[in-house]
Structures are given as structure tokens and as C-alpha cells.
Amino acid sequence: MSNSKIFVVEDDQNIRELVLYALKTADFNAVGFEDCVGFYKTLESESCDLILLDVMLPIEDGFQILKNLKSQSKTSDIPIIMLTAKGSELDRVKGLDQGCDDYITKPFSPLELLSRIKAVLRRSSPKSEQKPTQLSHKNITLDITKHTVFDGEREIHLTQKEFALLQFLLENKDTVFSRDKIMDAVWGFEYAGESRTVDMHIKTLRQKLGENGDIIKTIRGVGYKIG
After folding, report:
1. Is the pLDDT of residue 83 over 70?
2. Is the predicted pLDDT of residue 128 greater than 50, yes or no?
3. What was the pLDDT predicted at 107?
4. Are 143 and 171 members of one domain?
5. In a domain, 145, yes or no
6. Helical axes 13-25 vs 110-124, angle rounded to 10°
7. 124 has pLDDT over 50
8. What band does 22 get if pLDDT is binned at 50, 70 and 90?
9. Could you tell me if 107 and 147 lie in one domain?
10. Whole-model pTM?
11. Are 33 and 53 in the same domain?
12. CB atoms within 10 A of CB 78
């Protein structure tokens, strides 16, 4: 985990330098950018293990950069932590729904930041144990390596989070999970009090599965399961 390369996109020079100092002190290879221009240019020739992304940026804000990164195969799997002074529920939901892995509201301590970074890197690192590359239930087949979902011969196009949600439920068939547990497993951390995001993703996932949407069961007062 040490020596992991981290790109920091933050226009406030003082905050950027503080974050870079904390990362380098913790033996991370950290590179800072004040806006999207230098960041995008560097991404063309270099890869990284994680991105710290501020929301309030010139030229393109963090949400637009996040959207661009998640729409390209080369960068869609890079873990992203949003850094922002905005702490409203709407902003947190927006960032999570667009695919960020964590969301830290300023001001934050360097120790908290390092702890969050290490947790995200642990979750995103390849696991050594062998796991099945395909998961299926009834007529639905999910291929983890190809990142595809089929209903028989019909391909179902899912967002990154919808895919991760379906994969998690398929990997744990017949097990009921609360919304908090699903949030923790799929979004990467507990998002206390926020069940609407899970419910919305379950709803759209059922719609996209069509006639097979009923494989996702609602256990009233508890949560969801596939069974």
C-alpha cells in the first residue's frame, strides 16, 4: 500500500500542499494539480492508484471530472475520494451516485484523511483468493471480469454502482442485508441515515432486470436479498 501513487486535484494551494506533505510523510507517491488541465494531461501518460478530488474547482468542477473519469474505461476503476467544503446531503448523494468511493468534508485532519485513503486502497486492491468470475441466478448471469450482465441472450446495461450492487447480492444469495450493510459493502462506508440511495438503486436495478427483477426480494423492516 505504501508507495501507491495518488493524484491530488485541489485548487487551494495551502490545502494542496498540506495534503501532499501528509501523503509523502506516509510514504505515498503524491502529485498535486490545481485544476483539470494538468491533471488530464498527466493521466494521458501516467496511471495512479487513487485520486483525491476537490469539488469546487475552476474550469471543471469535481463532479464533472468524476463523471468524465467514470465514463472512460482507462480511468473508470480508479478509486476516488471527494474533498469538499460542501457537506449537504444532496452533494454527498450526488458524489456517491456518480461513483466516488468516499466523501470527506473540510476541514479534516491529516490522520483522518490517511485512514480513509488506506481503507479505500484496501477495498480496491486485488484479492489473492480465487473467486468465481461468473455469478448467476435464474436467467440472470453476471460476468465479473467482463463486467457484463445478461438476461439469457439479452445484455443489460448497468451503471457501475448498479453492477456492484447486483454482484454483492448475487455473491450472498439468500442472505438478507439491511440498507446500512449494503451501503457499507457497495459504497464502501456506512452512510448513516441515508437509505434513499440504496432504495433508488434497487428500484432502477429491478426495472433493468425486467421480468427477472423479482429475484431481488424486499424483506419488510429488514432489507433486501436475492433468493
Report:
1. yes
2. no
3. 84
4. yes
5. yes
6. 60
7. yes
8. very high
9. no
10. 0.58
11. yes
12. 18
